[in-house]
UniProtKB/TrEMBL annotation:
It comes from the Bacteria. It comes from Noviluteimonas lactosilytica. This is Folate-binding protein. PANTHER family: TRANSFERASE CAF17, MITOCHONDRIAL-RELATED. NCBIfam families: ygfZ_signature. InterPro entries: TrmE/GcvT-like, YgfZ/GCV_T_CS, YgfZ/GcvT. Keywords: Transit peptide.
Length: 289
C-alpha cells in the first residue's frame, strides 16, 4: 500500500469574483442601513452571506461580506457588475464619512482543498498578505483566497466545477437577467442565514419581514439535474402547468445542474423545462454562515 500523500488541488482564478472595499468611520453603519443581513452582528475577522435589495424586496446582488476591521468591510461579489454596484451604493452615501472602491489590484482564487487556517465564518489572514475563506460544505472541500499580486491561472473546467458546487450547496449564482426578480425567501436564502428580519430598516426590509412573520413563503429554491444546458429564465413546467422558472445553471461533469424557483407545495407530476425532463435533487447543507 502506498503512503505517498495525494497532490494538493491547485489554485485557479475566479475572475467573475471582485471585491468592493468600504472603509471609514461610517462604513459599517452605512452597510447596516443598506444590506439585508445584520452587518453589526459580524465582528472583525468574521464573514456572512449578504445582499442588496430593491425597495420592493427583490435581490439586486448577492455577496459575502467580510468585516476586515472595526471600520472596514469587503463585499466579495461573484456575479453582479462590481463597478455598477459600487456606483449604485455610492448614491446613498450622502454625507457619511467613508471611502468605497473596487479593488482591482487584488485577485480572487479558489481551490478544492480545506483551508489551512480559516474555519466556518472566521476568515484568516490580512489584506496585505492575503485572506482565505472557508467555503466547504457537506464533504465539498473548498477554499477561497483573496490576495494582491499575480492572479492564479485560468482553469475554465475548475471554475465551472466551483460554480456547480455553489449551486449544489444552495448559493444561487444570478446572471443579470435574474437580478431584481426574486425575494430572499424565494431564493431560500434563509438556508444560508443570509438575511435578517429583526434588525432595523434597510431597502426591502418591510417586504421581507412581512413575508416571514405572516408565513407567506409560497415559493423556494429547488435543485434539478438535467442532461443538457437549461435556459436560464425559461419556465419550469410541472405536468402541463408552468409553475416556476430556472434562475441559474452550471455544467456538472457530463450533465448540468439547475436551480429553479417553484411553489413549495406543488402536484406530483413530471417536471420539465422546454420539453427537457428535470430530476429533482436535494440541496446540500453546510454553507450556512
Amino acid at each position: 500500500m502506498s503512503h505517498n500523500p495525494q497532490p494538493e488541488s491547485p489554485w485557479f482564478a475566479l475572475p467573475g469574483h471582485r471585491v468592493i472595499a468600504l472603509e471609514g468611520r461610517d462604513a459599517i453603519a452605512f452597510l447596516q442601513s443598506q444590506c439585508m443581513n445584520d452587518v453589526e452582528a459580524a465582528p472583525p475577522g468574521r464573514w456572512q452571506w449578504n445582499g442588496w435589495l430593491t425597495p420592493k424586496g427583490r435581490v439586486i446582488a448577492l455577496f459575502a461580506l467580510a468585516r476586515i476591521s472595526a471600520e472596514a468591510a469587503w463585499l466579495i461579489v461573484p456575479d453582479a457588475d462590481a463597478d455598477a454596484l459600487a456606483a449604485q451604493l455610492q448614491r446613498f452615501v450622502l454625507r457619511r464619512q467613508l471611502v468605497m472602491k473596487v479593488l482591482d489590484e487584488i485577485h480572487v482564487a479558489g481551490r478544492f482543498e480545506a483551508p489551512e487556517k480559516a474555519a466556518g465564518a472566521s476568515f484568516a489572514g490580512t489584506p496585505e498578505d492575503g485572506i482565505e475563506f472557508d467555503l466547504t460544505g457537506f464533504g465539498l472541500r473548498r477554499t477561497l483566497r483573496i490576495a494582491a499580486g499575480h492572479s492564479a491561472p485560468v482553469d475554465e473546467e475548475a471554475e465551472m466545477r466551483w460554480r456547480a458546487s455553489d449551486l449544489r450547496l444552495g448559493f444561487p449564482r444570478l446572471p443579470a437577467s435574474q437580478q431584481e426578480q426574486w425575494t430572499p425567501q424565494m431564493l431560500s436564502l434563509d438556508r444560508l442565514h443570509a438575511f435578517s428580519v429583526k434588525k432595523g430598516c434597510y431597502p426591502g426590509q418591510e417586504i421581507v419581514a412581512r413575508t416571514h412573520f405572516l408565513g407567506q413563503v409560497k415559493r423556494g429554491l429547488t435543485m434539478f439535474e438535467c442532461p443538457n444546458e437549461p435556459e436560464v429564465g425559461a419556465n419550469v413546467d410541472v405536468g402541463a402547468a408552468p409553475l416556476g422558472q430556472v434562475v441559474s445553471s452550471a455544467r456538472n461533469g457530463e450533465g448540468w445542474i439547475a436551480l429553479a424557483v417553484l411553489p413549495v407545495e406543488r402536484p406530483e407530476a413530471v417536471v420539465a423545462t422546454k420539453g427537457m425532463a428535470l430530476r429533482e435533487r436535494a440541496l446540500l447543507a453546510g454553507l450556512a454562515r
